[in-house]
């Protein structure tokens, strides 16, 4: 894939962009096989990939420049800004939104935040698109509530230009650090969640809840987990680090008892809403720490699915899973290094199958799904 920003040396986020996707996939498979070399794998499934460009469903844009001429993109290490509104990873539907947001920033008087001077109000713009109906969620990350009423007053103009903005909110992030968002969220629309659907499963995206950035590949990841689980004798399942419930909602059947655990309350609200829409009454989602939840339980489920952040599930949860010894564990990971370390801490399990999902083309990153079976 060609990228003018990369060719000009102005953006190096896609470090592998000059390699054909086939070579990228081979390199990722080699990396994964090396990481699991000491852990015999019974079946390597074919890697899954998606589009090379236009695949992202969200944009996280640093706002810089001036109120009259804002730049939406990123800051280099030396503080110089780079406009990324033409990035090929974004779908074509993002272009008119970016085009309307630049004059809107001036209309609303939202001075871009200047990191060096610690002055200004508008830090980030966060845009997410639903593949279901093209609806979008737009979040303004502000330093304070000082410009909130000005933003409200100017908002009807933006909504007239972009009727696809079904959810609009303001996040308050007062800390002078590279932290994307703060705790306080102020909704400017009646609708507070973006409707999405993967494989016929209704999902909801709310502010401050994690959602995959590559919907084409993510839908295949969830469908694969569903197929693996339904081929096993599973009547009781835990979905730990469950996010908005994508895995659990795909895997569940009306007869199955499932508990989903995620520390973020906003994500649990999404998962609960989806379970209700599906009419699944044996699904229970709770906003708790996954490790604390698991180690406090007395019963043993048939299957535990874990989808942790990059740090992995850690020694404490591995030790507990080894003692609890569920018949099956499915491990979904965005960091195969920590996954391999965790699996090495589960000596009573064999790796039945592994599949790589190329969620992040043109980079060294990938997602991986692993089925572990109790020996």
From TrEMBL:
Top-level taxon in the UniProt lineage: Bacteria
Keyword Metal-binding: yes
Catalytic activity: uridine(747) in 23S rRNA + S-adenosyl-L-methionine = 5-methyluridine(747) in 23S rRNA + S-adenosyl-L-homocysteine + H(+)
Position of the signal peptide: none
Keywords in alphabetical order: 4Fe-4S, Iron, Iron-sulfur, Metal-binding, Methyltransferase, rRNA processing, S-adenosyl-L-methionine, Transferase
Keyword Secreted among UniProt keywords: no
Biological processes per GO annotation: methylation
Residues that hold [4Fe-4S] cluster according to the record: 3, 11, 14, 87
SUPFAM superfamilies: S-adenosyl-L-methionine-dependent methyltransferases
Binding of S-adenosyl-L-methionine, residues: 212, 241, 262, 307
Gene Ontology MF annotations: methyltransferase activity
Active site positions, chain numbering: 334 (nucleophile), 334
EC assignment: 2.1.1.189
Pfam family, one: tRNA_U5-meth_tr
Entries under HAMAP family matching the protein: 23SrRNA_methyltr_RlmC
Family according to the record: Belongs to the class I-like SAM-binding methyltransferase superfamily. RNA M5U methyltransferase family. RlmC subfamily.
Role noted for this protein: Catalyzes the formation of 5-methyl-uridine at position 747 (m5U747) in 23S rRNA.
Name by which UniProt lists this protein: 23S rRNA (uracil(747)-C(5))-methyltransferase RlmC
Organism expressing this protein natively: Kosakonia calanthes
